[in-house]
Amino acid sequence: MRKWVMGLVVVLASANLSGCGYNKLQNQDEAVKAAWSEVVNQYQRRADLIPNLVAAVKGFAAQEERVLVGVTEARAKATSIQLTPELINNPEAFAKFQAAQGELTSALKSLLLTVERYPELKSDANFRDLQAQLEGTENRITVARNRYIQAVQEFNVTVREFPTNITANMFDFEVKPNFSVQNEAEISTAPTVSFDTSTPSQQNTPVEGAPAPATPPPAN
Amino acid sequence: MKAALLTLALLLVGPVSVVRAQMAIPALEARVTDLTGTLTAGQQSALEEKLAAFERRKGAQIAVLILPTTAPEDIAQFGVRLMESWKLGRKGIDDGAALIVAKDDRALRIEVQYGLEGVLTDATSSRIINETIVPLFKQGDFAGGINAGVDQMLRVVDGEPLPEPDPSWKRDEGGRVPGGLVPMILMVIVAVGGFVRRTVGRGLAGAITGAITAAVVFAFTTSWIFATVAGGIVAVVVLAMGAGALQVLNGMGGSSRGGWSSGGSGGSWSGRSSGSFGGGSSGGIFTGGGGRGGGGGASGRW
Hints:
- The complex is a heterodimer.
- Chain A is mainly alpha-helical.
- Chain A has eight helices and no strands.
- The longest helix of chain A is centred in the N-terminal third of the chain and has 40 residues, at 22-61.
- Chain A is elongated, with a radius of gyration of 25 Å.
- Chain B is an alpha/beta fold.
- Helices cover 58% and strands 10% of the residues of chain B.
- The two termini of chain B are 49 Å apart.
- Chain B is elongated and about 80 Å long.
- In chain B, helix 2 packs parallel to helix 5, helix 6 crosses helix 10 (258-278) and helix 7 packs antiparallel against helix 8 (224-240).
- The chains are: A mainly alpha, B alpha/beta.
- The A-B interface holds A 3-4, 6-7, 38, 42, 128-133, 135-137, 139-140, 142-144, 147 and B 76-77, 80, 121-123, 125-127, 130, 244, 247-249, 251-252, 294-299.
């Protein structure tokens, strides 16, 4: 009889442990960490590509110093941030990391825009390979960020939801910061398109009732 | 009034159209999926056979999809979603790749799963696209471009030492018993063993429980070796079970709780097994092996 009761207690205790969400929290916490490692991995891959890319551009367009220095500096800044695992639990450090990587993204964009003016560079096999690698890496970053966002969302819901929030509180699990859209400001301001390139002052004062811009600005 | 109704209709339809905004992922039924009628039946089956032979020889899963458009998504975003759904490549090896052609967008992409990223690199994929496929596409030779591109992909993947293809490879994790069920299964086995033992005696109980276990394991794994080993272990356990443990479990599994515990687990077993057999690799339909990817590959335009 006593053993029977003991058995029941063990079964109830283990059922209770999984019911309170402790295991779920542990699982999802690990999932977030794994997703974050992939994000860091892909940002690192991008940082590793940049010296080669800069060298390739320099060979054809050394006079574009401003852009090249801009990329190099942004890379140095982005890689100087210590990527400790605690980063994902610290909103300020996370925001700083995101800002640094965002700067590098826009520096790279202006580099690729500049490259458009150098046809020999664009047809250079080495540069084309590097460009393909950079595009692939940017794509992987997007995927890794999306998966991280999903993992964090699931974790955060568990942390806030009843009754798992009690367990989360007990074991100090907090809501984790997530990625936000980088160009929020850009998106929220309506684009103004001027077809008259000779008077750039008009750009900021669109005439009321003028036809809506039918063609978007050329991509890239 | 009309306007109000229209607004209401838009409000009701709005969320639906947002969900529908993404291009639906076509069902994976064959290695070559042509939604545009670009390839003739002969070209399609020749390509299909080439890719099937490659999978039999090398193990890697490569598929081709031709569709009108991926709008409003970029072909790269669509490619990631496609691979999340198709799961090309063997589970754990992730050796899959797809050639996606969005004909009306004049865009194409080679999407590469993790296991092939080392050989079918972004740069290599980009070269296959821009140096082999795009020139032929520009002349309007779609079949030729796709064939030449696939040939190059196969040649590149051939250079990678991958694990041997295994005919009994478990494509789906459904075939495996989930780890969380193991303690429960053990308890059921011991309980049943105890019950049988009380009715028929020690030696026979070991043999009977062992045989039942072997049969169940065989049903799940279709492997005689596993079944024999598991049955043997269970037989030994039942034979060697201490009297104390037996009584405890007899109390739970044998008399009062017997119906509950074996009935409950029996239900979940049969549910899982039918699910796994339904989604398995048997039959002529091509399915992805459970491979994963992270957006590797390259895109191009013509």
